[in-house]
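Entry 14. Ran structure prediction on the chain below.
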Amino acid sequence: MGLGTSRLRRNVMTAVMATALAVAGLVTGTITAASAALTCEVTYTTHQWGTGSGGFTAGIAVKTTEPVTSWTLTFTFPGSQQLTQGWSAQWSQSGARVTARGQSSGTGFTIGFNGSWTGSNPPPTDFAVNGVPCKVTLIPSPSPSPSPSPSTTPSPVPLRIVISPSSLTVPEGGTASVQVRLNRQPPGNVIVGTARVAGDRDLAAGPPLTFTPDNWNVPQALAVSAAEDADTANGSATFDSRSSQITGSSAVLWAATEQDNDGSSTPDVPVDNPFRGVTGYVNTDWTANVEGSAMEAGGTAADRIRALKTVSTAVWLDRIAKVSGGAGVTRTLEDHLDAALAQNAGYVTLVLYDLPDKDCWSLVSDAELHYSENGLNRYKTEYINAIAAIAAKPKYQRLRIATIIEPRSLAHLITGRNTVTCDEVAQSGVYVSGIRYALDKLSPLPNVYTYLDAAHSGWVGWETEFAPLADLVTSTVRGSAGGLPSLDGIATNVADYIPTEEIHLPDPYLAISGVQVRATRFFDWNPMFDERDFATAMRSALIAKGFPSSLGTVIDTSRNGWGGPERPASVSTSADVNTYVDLSRLDRRPYRLSPCNQKGAGLGARPAADPVPGVDAYLWIKPPGESDGAGGPLLPPDTDRVVDPMCDPAAQNRYFRSAPTNALPNAPAAADWHHDQFMALVNNAHPAL
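Output, structure tokens:
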């Protein structure tokens, strides 16, 4: 679950559509007789900043009475507005006329854009889809609040400087930049200056930046340069950014590292750990959705949410069109890699998830390819070959490309025994053949790193599954052209919720009133309570079978924080073993195998390299806020109505009938933005935002 096809990204304003008609007036268009079969409604939401001039973000949610697979949306700016950037469509502007083109699979789509304005920013009202005028709901940017009364309103949060990322790499002889903004509107102009306080003197930053009450939240680039030198070291420096206009302590410390170019003209790949010493690619498709949730949340929550827009998340390549382009895709693999270069990112994480007949154990598989329909050949030629050809381009030679290969596929061959679909997959050998081919094509590329998915502790932690999976991983990789050294590592907890560490339950064999804690209802004799123990144990088992000692692991921490008010502060003192476990465990699910849009889950540890021994990185592989699958009681209007019961909040758990699914209600289709889930993840984050 959580591994469904990543469809056309819903824009940031999807979550406001259900209430839009109740909170705003309608501007009604007319439908021509020739187009009477199609009617449409548009919800136009804006968030603007500046006085006299400035910028704005707009979300456009469209509903149609008939399915529209290929659409053209048009409207006219009534003022001086200019389109600056758009997403989830192909955007263009001619004079005041704006056109957005795209494709969808149902009766609705959501898109958005950023723009600039001078004088005023009146909303457009002449929206049309394929030439048919639409009813329009306008949700304007909220007016500034009146000056609060000191006697009734608490003091504002302290004014501070926000810098992202907190560390970056600068090529020797070149420049890079960090983004600087303020956390709230200042009463007057604020000048932010920066000085090097320690480290390599060849690194310098500046000039000072000025923020006004109008542009305080518009990030400005602070240039960082690395002078040419004769040494061969990657020097680093610590910088201090502060402002004398901010009362109290305003200092923000951040770091830069020089990427040396002396002594060798070869790229700094391969390396032992691709995540070490560099920043990850920030997917702007995801951050656009984050911005939409921030706008909807408002207040101080918006600042906390917007801080996440610098976090790196993985790019899911779950169909061929995601690689080379096609229906419903606005950003191809090459587009993402080009964007990573533009950001000066050091690595990008790609999830390869398109094996024929994938997800064989699921009740609802959305496999694009099928073995019986020449799927394996298409997987090789149209998918893997295309990925390898793009990754091998010279312009990406210094970009570290970490691939997460086919989540849960090999585990399905272990746990899916005696199910018809998985038995057919095992007999065809399509999973093993496809993974070997991916390793054959990708592992020889010096800038590509291969991490094969190894499920998670809650699924294959029992010895009856753990050992067979270790054997299957070994035999699969050994059969590739490069053998065991062709694998750089394993990935665990992908798109799941298992805590990295169950801090109050370190010993699964501890006896409470004579009963071991692993024997409780929740753990069901599984001795693997958390992902750190599972990941390092699987790594050790694979090394014992002949894998190089350099084999690494990555753990998906995007949704395993389990913070918030329900997080237990200490171990239980109960003498009843089940009560002891239930009151001590961080994982708050009623049953451990509950994989869909889980209540109570929170953002986990932010992506970081070398977090603990034996782990290359914590990563956000599943982008937080993207739905695991459609769930009731009300289905999304554009869903195909194929719903996994595990996503139904009113259903019982497929794997343990006495427990509910624990799924959040009203979830959209898999990979679409789920604002309610995202807000729950933010509120339950650990570490807290």
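The domain at 161-259 is CATH 2.60.40.10 (Immunoglobulin-like). Will compare against last week's run tomorrow.
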